[in-house]
């Protein structure tokens, strides 16, 4: 059985090599790149199951690498865990806005980082619940979990993995008001260390991609968000 492949893009060689060594001990296949341009090339060529991406990289910055990965048909669904020495809230929000699925700041605990990697991979690999419908359609928005596709009025939406999970959660219980913490637990993971504003960034990006359908994701003042209620159609 093929090993899960992880790509580390990190210019601090001792950090990259130490993380790679520990991930290999955990049973993963690991690729390492020390600059952004080479990391992007390896991601496009090898299509790993997860990318650990540093923000501050030579040749091509991490944010640019993330944007290009998210715009590529073959790479847009690869989970990205962004790592940086910066700890400013704005840096985290920018990283999430361009498509990162999780965010860790340096200095980090190697044990914690590896657990976060496992959490992201587990969410990616998780199957739909036995009784869950594979296709949900509400007011022109369709989510097909088995094919990992989302559409609005027949046009495919270029969603990140986190945005896809967020939209699925909202659609499955259209009309229900979710708190930000509930949405973070469902779409990002209860083990993730994130700011409450993180979910606002994902919602803003989701609305932008919905275009004319952006108003379907409603803000519930003092609570969080909901998808505008309508008749729910599910298919097995």
Short description:
The chain has 236 residues and is α/β, with parallel strands linked by helices. 40% of the residues lie in helices and 22% in strands.
Ends: how far apart?
A: 30 Å
User: Shape from CA axes?
Assistant: globular
In which order are the strands of the major sheet placed? 2-1-3-4-5
Mean pLDDT value = 85
Strand content: 15-25%
Count of helical regions: 8
Helix content percent band:
25-40%
Secondary structural class: alpha/beta
Order of helices and strands: EHEHEHEHEHEEEEHEHHEEE
Number of strands: 13
Give the uncertain stretches in residue-range form: 127-132
Main β-sheet: number of strands, strand sense, barrel status?
5 strands, parallel
Query: Radius of gyration in whole Å, from Cα?
Result: 18 Å
Write the layout of secondary structure elements.
Blueprint: E1 5-9, H1 13-25, E2 29-33, H2 36-46, E3 50-54, H3 62-71, E4 80-84, H4 89-97, E5 102-105, H5 110-125, E6 135-138, E7 141-144, E8 149-152, E9 155-156, H6 161-172, E10 178-179, H7 180-188, H8 197-210, E11 217-220, E12 224-227, E13 233-235
Parallel strand pairs: 1-2, 1-3, 3-4, 4-5
Antiparallel strand pairs: 6-7, 6-13, 7-8, 8-9, 10-12, 11-12
Helix pairs in contact: 2-3, 4-8, 6-7, 6-8, 7-8
Write up what this structure looks like.
- The radius of gyration is 18 Å and the shape is globular.
- It has helices at residues 13-25, 36-46, 62-71, 89-97, 110-125, 161-172, 180-188, 197-210; strands spanning 5-9, 29-33, 50-54, 80-84, 102-105, 135-138, 141-144, 149-152, 155-156, 178-179, 217-220, 224-227, 233-235.
- It has eight helices and 13 strands.
- The protein has 236 residues and is an alpha/beta fold.
- The longest helix is centred in the middle third of the chain and has 16 residues, at 110-125.
- 40% of the residues lie in helices and 22% in strands.
């Amino acid at each position: 059985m093929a090993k899960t492949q992880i790509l580390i893009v990190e210019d601090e060689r001792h950090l990259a090599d130490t993380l790679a060594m520990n991930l290999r001990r955990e049973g993963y296949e690991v690729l390492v790149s020390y600059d952004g341009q080479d990391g992007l090339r390896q991601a496009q060529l090898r299509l790993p199951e997860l990318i650990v991406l540093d923000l501050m990289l030579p040749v091509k910055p991490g944010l640019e690498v993330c944007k290009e990965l998210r715009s590529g048909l073959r790479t847009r669904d690869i989970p990205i865990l962004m790592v940086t020495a910066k700890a400013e809230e704005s840096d985290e929000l920018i990283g999430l806005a361009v498509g990162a699925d999780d965010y860790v700041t340096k200095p980090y605990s190697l044990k914690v980082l590896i657990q976060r990697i496992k959490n992201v991979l587990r969410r990616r690999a998780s199957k739909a619940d036995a009784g869950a419908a594979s296709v949900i359609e509400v007011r022109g928005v369709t989510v097909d979990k088995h094919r990992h596709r989302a559409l609005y009025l027949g046009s495919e939406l270029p969603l990140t993995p986190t945005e896809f999970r967020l939209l699925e959660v909202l659609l499955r219980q259209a009309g229900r008001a979710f708190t930000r913490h509930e949405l973070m637990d469902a779409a990002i993971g209860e083990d993730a260390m994130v700011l409450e504003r993180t979910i606002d960034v994902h919602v803003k990006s989701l609305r932008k991609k919905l275009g004319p359908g952006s108003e379907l994701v409603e803000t519930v003042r003092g609570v969080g968000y909901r998808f505008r209620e309508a008749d729910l159609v599910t298919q097995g």
